[in-house]
Amino acid sequence: MSQQKRRSGTKMVTLPSHSIVPERDVNEIPVLETRHLGIEFGGLKAVDDFNLTIGKTEIAGLIGPNGAGKTTVFNLITKVYEPTTGATLINGHDLSGKSITQASKLGIARTFQNIRLFDNMTVEENVRIGLHNQIKYDMFSGMLRLPRYWIQENRQHDKALELLHIFDMEKLADERAGSLPYGVQRRLEIVRALATNPKLLLLDEPAAGMNPRETEELMENIAKIRDQFQIAILLIEHDMNLVMGVCEGICVLNFGRVIAKGTADEIQANPVVIEAYLGKKKEGQA
Amino acid sequence: MKMTKAKRVRLIYNIVTFALVIGAFIILQSMIANKTISRSLKGQLVPICCWIVMAVSLNLVIGISGELSLGHAGFMSVGAYTGAVVSGALLNIWDIQDTTLRLVIAIAAGGILAGIVGALIGIPVLRLRGDYLAIVTLAFGEIIRSLVNVLYIGAGDGKLHFSFLNKELPEGVTMLVDGAKGAVKIKPISTFAAGFILILITLVVVLNLVNSRAGRAIKACRDNRIAAESMGVNVTKYKMMAFVTAAVLAGMAGALYGLNSSTVVPTQFTFNQSINVLVFVVLGGLGNVLGSIVSATLLTVLPEVLRAFADYRMLVYAVVLILVMIFTNNPTIRAFVNRLISPFRKKDSVGGEAR
Q: Are A199 and A107 spatial neighbours (Cβ–Cβ below 8 Å)?
């Protein structure tokens, strides 16, 4: 099976803290560590006691039935929500009390389940917003067109096209982002997130709305991005082919709680996971 | 710099904008020199410049940064009073006779003070999400009007005398601001050339800002706040940047406007005036600087031109407004216009979208 072939076969190692990371990342500081992370909305525990460790170059998957709290976890990690309990560490930096912007500067980038591009701006401008904190110049250089403006604008332009090249999108650089087809918009979101030079890339249903061929391509690209940029990727996805094909560590969430963690094989064989997805076997059934 | 299609369209747009303004200035100046210009139009030149600057600066807030500000006339008022006081002080205290120098200092002071006031409003309000800015700026416009209604400033003995609520100024001072009578005895020193230069400054600032790192950040905050924050853009900072820049420009326009006549009264800068500027912006097109210039000019000239039909003036004005809205927003008519000009365009052009 092609799916079997592509599976990374990474050896996963259990750390003393009972978290699992790929063997190659054992000696590095984990890029993401959440400790007892939880949030309540008016008494409802949307996420409770969420513990996850992601190695420096790991591709991890976060799966679970609809409404399990996967996107809420993303919103907690990116500081859209302030958690009611627990803490998040990015490369060893505590995120408590930090804003979304500060979290981004520490190296978190994300895409959104419901695409959030800057619709009225061009593709290149969208990527340039990602480069906002990478290639800088002050407001007055821009207003007065000082030499620094031209130098940095050229650098932004080159870097933006270089990033768009990952998905062969250079030709679309001048198109309005809002006018692109759905699948291309999803890819543009990934490029824009990569432009912020992240250490951890969060992808919220990157394959949603893509056909099987596009999903295959996306799978290869996710692996390619990890290899090229040496970053960690955490993705939420319902397409099990993609998750099982590309993710090294997988975390399964149900009703806001982690019910299983492990490699693709372990998850597929885990009765608790099967029960969460398919329901409990009735007594007496074979 | 490498030219891409979007950049080319932007460059052409900017060149057309500047060419239009400079061309209009040259034509009007030669008309003034030949004395072929009508008196009423000549008297309107400086106000037109002021309203253009007001419209373009408000477009920066509404069209580019996507916040609704309903108190733009308030900043103009701050600028007008500051300009009148500074100009009066320079004349009466330091005895500076050079009108150009007085005008430049007065305009700069008007811009700076309006900018400070803008920052004071923006710091608390722009941190919030939603329509709070509209509410607060609406109130601000009214507060400024009430404040200057009871403000008395006089120049004498080599310094400025301030008094608030009641007129308690020493004998023999020259009144600069006289409560409800407004700023009085202003020596009109505004010139059309000054207005033209102010428009150029405004265009350089706004167009260059829009096409820079800061401008993209401002547009990103407008298009999608959460996404912009997630990309590491400090939303409050860039909204402030747009708002304060607009306030400074409005203050400068106000100073120029105030120094164009002999008196400035508080009732000149009411809520209606703010809405007027809003109409210029909306008719010209949100985010469209060239459109703001054209609509500000037309809508300032139109009521004067229609003075001959005094009874039907507002009727015609309203009809023209409605027609413009229909023509600029009707997809069929737009498609028709696009077809008319399509032979002049490249086939793959998406120029209409880019700014």
A: yes
Q: How many angstroms separate the CA of residue B284 from the nearest CA in chain A?
A: 18
Same domain, A11 and A100: yes
CA dihedral of residues B303, B309, B311, B315 (deg, nearest 10): -50
The CATH number assigned to the domain holding B39 equals: 1.10.3470
B226–A142 C-beta distance less than 8 A: no
pTM as predicted: 0.86
For residue A90, give Cα distances in angstroms to A48, A93, A157, B104, B251: 19, 5, 29, 52, 46
Nearest to A118 among B208, B220, B229 (CB): B220
A101 at interface of B, judged by CB pairs closer than 8 A: yes
Mark whether A149 and A263 lie in a shared domain. no
Helix boundaries (H) for A46-198:
70-77, 100-105, 123-130, 139-144, 147-164, 182-195
> What would you report as the CA-atom Rg of chain A, rounded to the nearest whole angstrom?
20
pLDDT at A18: 67
Report yes or no: A160 at the B interface, CB cutoff 8 Å. Answer: no
Give the separation between CA A146 and CA A158, rounded to whole angstroms. 19
Task: Answer with the one of A168, A191, A214 that is the final residue of a domain.
Answer: A191
Q: For residue B227, which residues of chain A lie inside 8 Å, CB to CB? A: 112, 116-118
A132 with A241, same domain: the answer is no
Please indicate, yes or no, whether residues A22 and A139 belong to a single structural domain of this protein.
no
Same domain (yes/no): A7, A102: yes
Q: Is residue B216 assigned to a domain?
A: yes
| Chain-chain contact of A132 with B208 (C-beta, under 8 angstroms) | no
| Full pLDDT tens readout for chain B, 355 residues | 456 677 788 888 888 889 998 998 998 888 888 888 888 788 888 999 999 999 999 999 998 988 888 889 999 999 999 999 998 888 888 877 888 888 999 999 999 999 999 999 999 888 887 788 888 999 998 898 888 888 888 887 777 778 887 777 777 777 888 878 888 888 888 889 999 999 999 999 999 998 899 999 999 999 999 999 999 999 999 999 999 999 999 999 999 999 998 888 888 888 888 888 988 888 888 888 888 999 899 888 887 777 777 677 677 777 877 877 777 667 777 777 777 766 655 544 444 433 3
Q: According to the model, what pLDDT value does residue B344 have?
A: 59
Kindly tell me if the per-residue pLDDT of A147 is higher than 50. Answer: yes
**Closest residue of A to B223, CA-based?**
A118
Instruction: Provide the ipTM.
Output: 0.85
Q: Where does a domain end: A162, A191, A220?
A: A191
> Containing domain of residue B225, as a range?
5-347
Q: Which of B1, B232, B241 sits opposite A153 (nearest CB)?
A: B1
> Mind listing the pLDDT tens digit for each residue in A268-283?
888 888 888 877 766 6
- Residue B79 carries which side chain, given as an amino acid letter? G
**Residue A81 domain boundaries:** 2-107+198-278
CB atoms within 10 A of CB B321: 16
CB pairs A-B closer than 8 Å: 112
Question: Residue A283 falls within a domain, yes or no?
Answer: no
* Residues A101, A7 within the same domain: yes
